[in-house]
Write a structure and sequence with these properties.
Elements (H helix, E strand, L loop, with lengths): L14 E6 L4 H11 L5 E8 L4 H19 L3 E8 L10 H20 L4 H9 L1 H7 L2 E7 L10 H16 L3 E8 L1 E2 L8 E2 L5 E4 L2 H14 L7 H5 L3 E7 L2 H11 L4
Parallel strand pairs: 1-2, 1-4, 2-3, 4-5
Antiparallel strand pairs: 5-9, 6-7, 8-9
Helix pairs in contact: 1-7, 3-6
């Protein structure tokens, strides 16, 4: 599929979730796309580093920075505390799944605190319905099953867990998008895969806001990996079903 600007394709999603391994992944790989759609309700969850006060504080500031950009109270973020030590020991899959689900529940609970009292009364009466629908989104965005660069196990584990939750129906969405980047086996900075289903070119203004969040909010220096990888183009693999993911993996396992 050829390169397209987001403005060339209707972004027909009103309620979107971005599920990533680390605070900064949401900005690094999809920050421009988020910034381009302030009309959307965004739920952003990062599965690791909650106990890291510095990173947790920067994530909160990043969410507020998005909000200041025109979002009001339509963007919400939560962090988990899965192990992210340098050894990168494999995580138990169910632990990753449970963390995703609990974070989404936490975001849903927190967001209702900002609603009028009358709305809260209705929500209490329909608590069971809220619980059944809290994990329903129009779009879920997450990591690639092969990650974005060589190699971070947590990115891959996050993608695998999201895929399985989506296929099982525990997470509901019309579509799931996966970041589409590669680094040539570690020989270059991550860059959008040319054959990706969707390639989004960022305007100068949007890119500057994204770069500001990476360097000024998250605090990465201009010569850091993160700053240099925060490109002006974002790319995604786009799926409409879990079976679609599996089929594409079989056919293009080296690309996804």
């Amino acid at each position: 599929m050829g390169e397209r600007k987001a403005s060339d394709k209707t972004f027909d999603f009103g309620n979107c979730a971005v599920i990533v391994a680390h605070p900064d992944d949401e900005t690094l790989w999809a920050g421009g796309t988020i910034l381009m759609h302030p009309e959307v309700r965004w739920t952003i969850v990062a599965l690791c580093r909650k106990s890291d006060r510095d990173r947790a504080g920067r994530f909160a500031r990043a969410i507020e920075e998005f909000r200041i950009s025109d979002f009001g109270f339509r963007i919400f973020g939560k962090m988990g505390d899965l192990d992210d030590g340098p050894e990168q020991k494999p995580l138990v899959e169910n632990e990753v799944k449970d963390t995703i689900m609990s974070l989404l529940l936490s975001v849903n609970s927190s967001s209702t605190m900002n609603k009028p009292r009358s709305s809260l009364i209705v929500n209490r009466k329909t608590k069971n319905n809220e619980q059944r629908t809290m994990n329903k989104f129009d779009l879920i965005i997450t990591h690639s099953l092969c990650g974005e660069y060589t190699r971070h196990r947590r990115h891959e584990e996050t993608a695998k867990a999201v895929c399985k939750l989506w296929k099982s129906g525990k997470l509901s969405a019309k579509q799931m998008w996966m970041f589409a980047y590669e680094d040539g086996g570690g020989k270059k900075l991550p860059e959008p895969i040319r054959e990706a289903d969707l390639s989004v070119k960022l305007s100068d203004d949007i890119w500057r806001k994204k770069y500001h969040t990476i360097t000024k909010i998250y605090g990465f220096g201009s010569d850091s990996f993160e700053a240099r990888a925060a490109g002006r183009q974002e790319a995604f693999w786009c799926f409409k079903s879990g079976d679609d993911v599996e089929r594409r993996l079989r056919n293009r396992s080296k690309e996804i």
